[in-house]
């Protein structure tokens, strides 16, 4: 924090209501949501858009829940996907070699898909297209942040090229190792799972019919997520020590390993594009806000991809933050003031803590081979299928769809 | 760059910046005003927009309107109104307040025309406005009829006047004097003189004498459960807002 005399705004400074540090999926979505409402927003991004759209930049896919889809729709991003999103019509959760599984069909909770599987590169392209339409948004990329000064009245970001950005509020969307979070001295609580995820896309012989499968193997969960066409995204979590071996296999041997886990319901599979690996851990920030600073998405929480909720949590953060910002901004109030920031933190903390807890529990429950736990999870999975527990199952499904809790206007499908 | 940068001596910026930080600290000694601010700004925005046929949810809904904020203090109303697009003149009889507000506007890059002057002097200079705002001021004024005459004279023919003040009731004595000054210590003792508070009927009569008609009186009620104020047309016992026009 600054104790220096205040800096007057210079002619050459770029002035905005909100400056977002980090141009990942969460940061760009927030810029699109704020820009749609007319809030002057500057998004500072380390990587150039061209580089981010290269095939090697990010081979991951993202599960977009129904609620997240609504957020992206409200931010004007969803239309730019031009339908390049695989709808999830059924979710099957199953144990190794176990015929009974937990079966979620979207028709049990309405006529909407549970969500969609979208390739990150496709989502990014849609976001760039949306930002280009918004006159109140400036996307600065590629450029690094050199320093951050958060004063009582304004925050000043000095860029590596010497330019200055002045804003009432800085939003940290700069990922797990967030410099914004470190600047505010906000600590993390967290742990590691000793698991690493291998991410790969496969092409297959038979259609997937919109079915997502979560297969719980003793070494970690193995997820099959339907993309558009006859393509499926695989998120294969395994013991970290075993992963270098799989990553180093030649194509034929790697394909055989995949086929053995996927089974034959998709016919013959063939990996397309690269293989990527990501060590898995969870973390949660002690606070989400500080003077003239709000943190969102992975800067404040990271979780196991077991429930496919990582980006969805981040998108709900930004929907809540965008709403408190726009409510203050429409009255000319301080978008980086204490009241605005406290409202955001109160709103999001409860939801995030509950989901982190549930996900951590699921991971520990399923990633092992202890006999009593195997029995317990078998019973647990079967039990939620039992008729008396159907309301509980519906609640789980609505959670998966991202439509539980005090919903931001964007999640409810209303304009900001 | 704000229009007011020239009114503050560069040597004084640091001093006034420190005072401004106090005024704008939402948890500091002006906390009650910050608690009042969202609801009174919403009232101002919505009534001004309705009067001039504008959409209050559009960006910069007050663009093109000229407003004067009488008794602007540290600029807690003037600056947000300017951010909503209005051309704002903020005046205060205390020079320290004007310099404080101007320093803050310079820091945030908000254009507000702050002046160390009085409503009477603005009238003498022949200035007129689309909206005249006098919030939490009339209860401190020595000559109420003269003050109301000046407010009316500053209004353009189609303009509107918005005022906020405290009612003179037993409840306002308990809440605004005993509660706010002695129990909660939100305000320094002696901030308010209960005998100078005006009942809505008295204020309406005073405005009628200047040729203005009160169009609405709205209560402002503090709710301790969510620590916030809200509008309530049926409860005018303590804080109330009104608007008037010719």
TrEMBL record, chain A:
Look up the record and name the cofactor or cofactors this protein needs.
FAD
Keywords from the UniProt entry:
FAD, Flavoprotein, Monooxygenase, Oxidoreductase
Q: Does the keyword Electron transport apply?
A: no
Native source species? Nitrospirillum amazonense
Q: Name one GO cellular component term.
A: ubiquinone biosynthesis complex
> What GO molecular-function term can you cite, just one?
FAD binding
Q: Which Gene Ontology BP annotations are present?
A: ubiquinone biosynthetic process
User: What's the protein here called?
Assistant: 2-octaprenyl-6-methoxyphenol hydroxylase /2-octaprenyl-3-methyl-6-methoxy-1,4-benzoquinol hydroxylase
> Gene3D superfamilies this protein is in?
FAD/NAD(P)-binding domain
Q: In which pathway does it act?
A: Cofactor biosynthesis; ubiquinone biosynthesis
A Pfam family: FAD_binding_3
The yes or no answer to whether the keyword Flavoprotein is present is yes
Q: Which residues form the FAD-binding domain?
A: 16-328
Automatic annotation (TrEMBL), chain B:
GO molecular-function term, one example from the UniProt record = 3-demethylubiquinol 3-O-methyltransferase activity
Q: Known catalysed reaction(s)?
A: a 3-(all-trans-polyprenyl)benzene-1,2-diol + S-adenosyl-L-methionine = a 2-methoxy-6-(all-trans-polyprenyl)phenol + S-adenosyl-L-homocysteine + H(+); a 3-demethylubiquinol + S-adenosyl-L-methionine = a ubiquinol + S-adenosyl-L-homocysteine + H(+)
GO:BP terms for this protein? methylation
Q: Which domain of life is it from?
A: Bacteria
Q: What Enzyme Commission number(s) does the record list for this chain?
A: 2.1.1.222, 2.1.1.64
The kind of enzyme this is, by top-level EC class, is transferase
List residues binding S-adenosyl-L-methionine. Answer: 40, 71, 92, 135
> Keyword annotations for this protein?
Methyltransferase, S-adenosyl-L-methionine, Transferase, Ubiquinone, Ubiquinone biosynthesis
What residue ranges carry the coiled-coil annotation? none
InterPro entries (alphabetical): SAM-dependent_MTases_sf (IPR029063), UbiG_MeTrfase (IPR010233)
Question: Pathway, per Swiss-Prot/TrEMBL?
Answer: Cofactor biosynthesis; ubiquinone biosynthesis
- Which is an annotated Pfam family here? Methyltransf_23
Any stretches that span the bilayer, and where are they? none
CDD domains associated with the record: AdoMet_MTases (cd02440)
Q: What does this protein do?
A: O-methyltransferase that catalyzes the 2 O-methylation steps in the ubiquinone biosynthetic pathway.
Q: Which family does it belong to?
A: Belongs to the methyltransferase superfamily. UbiG/COQ3 family.
> What is the recorded name of this protein?
Ubiquinone biosynthesis O-methyltransferase
Q: What organism does the UniProt record list as the source?
A: Nitrospirillum amazonense
- Which gene is this protein's source? ubiG
């Amino acid at each position: 924090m600054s104790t220096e005399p205040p800096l007057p705004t210079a002619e050459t400074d770029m002035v905005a209501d909100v400056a977002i540090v980090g141009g990942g999926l969460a940061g760009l979505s927030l810029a699109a949501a704020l820009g749609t409402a007319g809030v002057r927003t500057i998004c500072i991004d380390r990587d150039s858009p061209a580089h981010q759209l290269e095939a090697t930049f990010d081979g991951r896919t993202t599960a977009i829940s129904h609620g997240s889809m609504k957020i992206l729709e409200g931010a004007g991003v969803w239309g730019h996907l031009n339908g390049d999103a695989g709808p999830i019509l059924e979710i099957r959760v199953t144990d190794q070699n176990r015929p009974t599984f937990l079966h979620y069909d979207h028709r049990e909770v309405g006529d909407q898909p549970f969500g969609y599987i979208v390739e990150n590169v496709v989502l990014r392209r849609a976001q760039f297209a949306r930002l280009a339409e918004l006159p109140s948004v400036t996307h600065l990329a590629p450029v690094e942040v050199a320093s951050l000064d958060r004063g009582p009245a304004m925050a000043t970001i000095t860029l590596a090229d010497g330019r200055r950005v002045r804003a009432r509020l800085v939003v940290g969307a700069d990922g797990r190792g967030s410099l914004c979070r470190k600047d505010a001295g906000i600590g993390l609580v967290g742990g590691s799972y000793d698991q690493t995820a291998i991410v790969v896309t496969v092409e297959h012989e038979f259609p997937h019919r919109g079915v997502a499968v979560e297969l719980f193997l003793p070494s970690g969960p193995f997820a099959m997520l339907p993309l558009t066409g006859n393509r499926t995204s695989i998120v294969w979590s395994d013991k970290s020590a075993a992963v270098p071996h799989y990553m180093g296999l030649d194509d034929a041997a790697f394909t055989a390993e995949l086929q053995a886990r996927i089974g034959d319901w998709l016919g013959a599979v063939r990996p397309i594009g690269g293989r990527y690996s990501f060590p898995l851990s969870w973390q949660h920030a002690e606070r989400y806000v500080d003077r003239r600073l709000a943190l969102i998405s992975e800067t404040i929480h990271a979780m196991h991809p077991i429930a496919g909720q990582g980006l969805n949590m981040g998108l709900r953060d930004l929907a809540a933050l965008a709403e408190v910002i726009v409510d203050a901004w429409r009255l000319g109030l301080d978008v980086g003031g204490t009241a605005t920031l406290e409202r955001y933190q109160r709103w999001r903390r409860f939801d995030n803590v509950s989901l982190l807890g549930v996900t951590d529990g699921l991971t520990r429950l399923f990633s092992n081979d202890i006999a009593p736990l195997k029995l317990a999870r078998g019973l647990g999975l079967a039990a939620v299928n039992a008729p008396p527990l159907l309301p509980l199952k519906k609640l789980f499904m609505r959670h998966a769809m991202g439509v539980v809790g005090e919903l931001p206007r964007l999640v409810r499908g209303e304009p900001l | 760059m704000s229009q007011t940068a020239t009114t503050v001596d560069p040597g004084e910026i640091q001093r006034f910046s420190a005072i401004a930080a106090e005024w704008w600290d939402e948890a500091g000694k002006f906390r009650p005003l910050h608690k009042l601010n969202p609801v009174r700004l919403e009232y101002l925005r919505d009534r001004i927009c309705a009067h001039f046929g504008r959409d209050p949810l559009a960006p910069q809904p007050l663009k093109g309107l000229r407003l004067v904020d009488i008794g602007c203090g540290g600029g807690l109303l003037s600056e947000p109104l300017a951010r909503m697009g209005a051309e704002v003149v903020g005046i205060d009889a205390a020079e320290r307040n004007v310099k404080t507000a101007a320093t803050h506007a310079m820091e945030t890059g908000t254009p507000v025309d702050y002046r160390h002057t009085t409503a009477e002097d603005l009238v003498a200079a022949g200035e007129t406005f689309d909206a005249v705002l006098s919030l939490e001021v009339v209860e401190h004024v020595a000559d109420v009829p003269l003050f109301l005459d000046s407010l009316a004279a500053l209004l353009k023919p189609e303009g509107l006047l918005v005022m906020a003040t405290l009612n003179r009731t037993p409840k306002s004595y308990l809440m605004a004097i005993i509660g706010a000054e002695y129990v909660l210590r939100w305000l320094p003792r002696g901030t308010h003189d209960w005998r100078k508070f005006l009942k809505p009927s008295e204020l309406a009569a005073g405005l009628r004498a200047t040729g203005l008609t009160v169009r609405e009186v709205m209560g402002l009620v503090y709710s301790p459960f969510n620590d916030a104020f809200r509008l309530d047309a049926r409860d005018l016992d303590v804080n109330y807002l009104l608007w008037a026009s010719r």
